[in-house]
Each structure stands twice: as C-alpha cells, then as structure tokens.
Amino acid sequence: MFKRISFLLVFALLASAFSRQYIFQKISMLMETRSVTAGKSSRVLANMYYTSEGKMLTYFQAPQEMVIVNNKKGEITIYNPKDNTVMQQQNYMLGTETNQLYFFLENKRNDLGLSAMDYTVRNTKIEDGLKITEWTPPMALIKDISKVELVHEKGNPIFMGYYGVKGVPIKKMYFYNYTKVSDYIVLPAAITQIDFKSSKDSIITKTTYTDFKLNQQVADDKLNFIVPENAKVLRK
C-alpha cells in the first residue's frame, strides 16, 4: 500500500510539473499604463518577461529607462542604465505572486489570490449569468475593509471591488478584452483600476497588454539580464 501511495504521489507531482511546462515556460508582452488624477496624466511603457519559475523582468522605456527584476520571494533588483546604478531590496508584497498577471498565468483566476491572503467566502450568488462572490477580510484588515466583491463571467473575472467599513468603495478593478495567447492561456488585455482617495478624488489607471509572445518566441537574452559589475550600488 505504501509503495502504491508513493508511486501515485510521484506520478501526480511529475504530471503537475509537465502540465506547467506544457502550458508555458516563458512569456513576454508590451505593457502600457496611463493614469489620470487631479487633471494630470502620466504614461508608463515597458516590456515584460515572465517565466514559469516566477521570475519577472520589466524593461521600462517611459517615463525613463529602467530594468526591474523580481521573483516569488520578493527579491527585487532595480537598475538605472542612465546612471549605471543598482538598488536591491526584499519585500514579499512586491513579489511576482502578488502581480495581477500571476493569477491568470498560474490559473488562480477563481479568487485572484484572496484565499492566499486569508480572505474567506461570505456569500455566492448568480445574477444574469454572472457569478458574484463576497469575501470577508482577515482580522488584521477588518478595521479598514468590510468586504471584497468578485464577479466572474464564464469563468473569467471581470470585476473586483474593495469596500470600506461603511460600504464606501476603496478600489475597483475591471478586467476585459480577454485574449487567447495559446490553447491554455487566456489573459485580460486591458485592466482599468480606480483608486478612491476621497469621495471627490480618485486615481484612474488603465493598463493594456499587447504583442504577446510565448516560449520559443521569447528572447532569452532579455531573461538572462545581468547588472553590470561596475554599477554603483545605492542604499535605501
């Protein structure tokens, strides 16, 4: 019996690893983010590269050149090619497992990471073909967040909203323009996020993803980026 269980466990692990590699090993895309607040707008343009091991490299083109490398552990390297400077830090909250794309690439679209952050399901209902789930925050956040609402359409999240203790919205996110990157990967090519600073003031951010490339199409030299040895190390 023990040998049979061990065999099944090993088989399941191998099958899982094979499945992940078959879905994707590496992926890249062009990201453009536009934000508007208090009548002022800003634009960020970057090429993003992500591997199945959770390594992500972001090559920023605007508003300035910069390369950011991070991983699941939140180990971050920020390189400024213009000044040839580098800064390193570790912050789990900035790890790739907290990145929005991670939840879609790792097939965690059912809860977008809420379970991992100790949110629990309060209520689930179906309205007009949409699955609407309400989540209760962990005790550490109960003073600031009353609930999170997550809406799915045909298995894909289309809305996520955070609400304060009086039911006032704190943050709203809309996922749309779903794009089929491969037979196994479907990603939202556009995400609009509204951060409510007050009842009369908010930050509206729209992020679009284009030029998707998968596996052999992805340039390895971008994934193998190394900070120059003569780069000046900056301290926090």
Task: Characterize the structure shown.
The chain has 236 residues and is mostly beta strands. The chain has a single domain (27-229), classed as outer membrane lipoprotein receptor (LolB), chain A, CATH 2.50.20.10. It is built from 3 helices and 14 strands. It has a 14-stranded mixed beta sheet. It is globular. The termini are far apart. Residues 1-21 have low confidence and may be disordered.
CATH class category label: Mainly Beta
CATH topology: outer membrane lipoprotein receptor (LolB), chain A
Q: What kind of assembly state do the chains in view correspond to?
A: single chain
What gap, in angstroms, lies between the N and C termini?
Answer: 55 Å
Morphology call: globular
Chart the SSEs and their pairings.
Layout: H1 2-23, E1 26-37, E2 40-51, E3 56-62, E4 66-70, E5 75-80, E6 85-90, H2 100-105, E7 120-127, E8 130-136, E9 147-153, E10 156-163, E11 169-180, E12 186-196, E13 202-214, H3 220-223, E14 232-233
Parallel strand pairs: 6-14
Antiparallel strand pairs: 1-2, 1-13, 2-3, 3-4, 4-5, 5-6, 7-8, 8-9, 9-10, 10-11, 11-12, 12-13
Summarize the structure.
With 236 residues, the protein is mainly beta. Helices cover 14% and strands 49% of the residues.
Spell out the key features of this protein:
disordered N terminus; 3 helices; 14 strands; 236 residues; mainly beta; outer membrane lipoprotein receptor (LolB), chain A; 14% helix; globular
